[in-house]
Amino acid sequence: MARFLFLCFLFSIIVSQAKAGDAFSCDNSRGNYTTNSIYDNNLKTVLSSFSSHTEINYGFYNFSNGQDPDKAYAIGVCRGDVEPNDCRRNLNNSIGYLREQCPNQKEAIVWGGDNTLWYSNRSIFGIVETSPTKYLILTRDASDADQYEEALSNLMTNLTEKAASGDSRRKYDAHSVSDGNFGIIYGYVLCMPDLSSQQCNDCLLQTISEIPLCCNGKMGGNILKPSCRIRFDPYRFFNSTIVLDPNATPPEPPSLPTSPSTTNSTSSGHNKIRTVIATAVPVATVFLFLIFICIYLRFRKLKQMVEAGNGEYDDGDGDEDEDEISIVESFQFNFDTIRVATSDFSDSNKLGQGGFGVVYRGKLPNGQMIAVKRLLKDSSQGDVEFKNEVLLVAKLQHRNLVRLLGFSLEGTERLLIYEFVTNKSLDYFIFDPIRKAQLNWQKRYDIIRGIARGLLYLHEDSRLRIIHRDIKASNILLDNEMNPKIADFGLARLFVIDQTQGNTNRIVGTYGYMAPEYAMHGQFSVKSDVFSFGVLILEIITGHKNSTNIGHGNDAEYLLSYVWKSWREGKAINTIDPSLNNVSANEIMRCIHIGLLCIQENVVERPTMASVALMLNSNSLTLSIPSKPAYFYGSGTRSLQDMQLWAGHIDSTTSSESKNTASNTDPYPR
Length: 670
Known about the structure:
Blueprint: H1 2-15, E1 23-32, H2 38-52, E2 60-65, E3 72-78, H3 84-101, E4 105-111, E5 115-120, E6 134-141, H4 145-164, E7 171-178, E8 184-191, H5 197-209, H6 211-215, E9 218-224, E10 228-233, H7 269-309, H8 318-328, H9 335-341, E11 350-353, E12 357-363, E13 369-375, H10 382-393, E14 404-410, E15 413-419, H11 427-430, H12 441-461, E16 465-467, E17 476-478, E18 484-486, E19 493-495, E20 501-503, E21 506-510, H13 516-521, E22 523-525, H14 526-542, E23 549-550, E24 557-558, H15 559-568, H16 585-598, H17 609-617, H18 640-647, E25 662-666
Parallel strand pairs: 21-25
Antiparallel strand pairs: 1-4, 2-3, 3-5, 4-5, 6-9, 7-8, 8-10, 9-10, 11-12, 12-13, 13-15, 14-15, 16-19, 17-18, 20-22, 23-24
């Protein structure tokens, strides 16, 4: 079983792609090849050898295969702080990415964040190549450019001397130096280890000499060349260098089996065909069998996880972590690319801040606008939310859900990259006395229906049933046409299709939007999202936050209580936002009715999102009479202080009846 899991993992990393945004170069001057040509087969053989030679533990691979003129050469090298398994995985990701970006060029190169991959139809071993060159520049200026450049020059000179003295396994060094202004410059240099000391020294010195040309006065930059590369930054981006055995010598590059396409055969054409078939059929059979086993094991593990943990992903063991990493590897962005895209996460690009991080606007090199969520480093829930968001959202495709483009990890930095949604969040409009006028009733109605469609997809139409658990106005983004998109899946829970509810030991979310059974007892289901949606409907219609006390003194009432009592007394029209001018009053009153059905205290009485969607799209459907909402003030069951607590005015733990061991919530809607 362990062998099968290993093969599954190996297969997953081979077919995954590299980090979106990595710098690369396709060299058309070296010629092109066609799929399944002799060169293509030689190249596949040499590239597949990276993952098979696990005895190489120093991060440098150089192989060749075939006969001229179709011989393929490949080099892969990782930074000196990258573990061997991570190095092989990242290089395999770069292989998939480069083959996609340069589908028929015989020579190509990609510079990953911690590795370089280069292949060609000419010998590239032991030679110095300084072209092509790519620059990645941090736009932030040093406060004292002259002093910064002097410190940087000293750092790079020292790093070059140490890297060039390395052996044929590694020519790399990384360190830091004070910039003279209470700051630190971090940097590294790297050469292809098969260069001589003099070649490495010459390549690095030329690269360093280009710093004033590309990065004059800037606090960070990457200069990328085929044979060497350098990087400097005002923050630490590397780990401790892995120490190699000084007494060990690197083995000679293993000889690879010659590709059948390059051998001279005296057999007849029929024998060749029989040989190919005899080889291909068993290989294809095994390949398909492995895929089937991988799928079976994955689904069985998912089921076990759901049964053992009520659907929540645990940290688990190493095999599970590797499986999860392999799923999302193809969505990984280069951290430098995102940092440059956001102007080093400048305040001018800041879109907002929530309980788990700050969101920035960014622009990729291809011109695409993105939204980058930078998770807080000290967030107690950050690791869980990051894993949930990547694993869940990456699988979701719906017009009313914000699309996850990818993620980035470097050191303690964790980023989520989303499509950029133009018009901020719903709360930016409906709770502002001026901006709310931009949302007439038709737009608000379309927003309500769009949110309903998105929730229905999560609950019933996606491949996995997903409970969002944090539906609120600030998590509804609006595009340029004011279409709603549900965002922020950091608290989402995954269910198998026939599972309808669960319990949690940790209450997370935003008071006021929480269903009572969840806030008090940790019980959640699709009906928990329905409750939050009902609160949102009433906020959209009234223009009031759910935490608002409507009225004064002893007459002050919580929004849900106020709307329900007004509806019971036939005065619900008084709750409508005055900026709507009672346009389409009947339709608005029907929506109030639907909202009250969603917030009923009894879970069973609340409709499903499928029923809600039907109610919103069919005026002829008769609606049932709603019972009192949760947190209702006036029934004698709870005081106004209790309701204020639930609405988020007072930060406290849940009641003694709760099963949760900790309450970690946002006390106010973001």
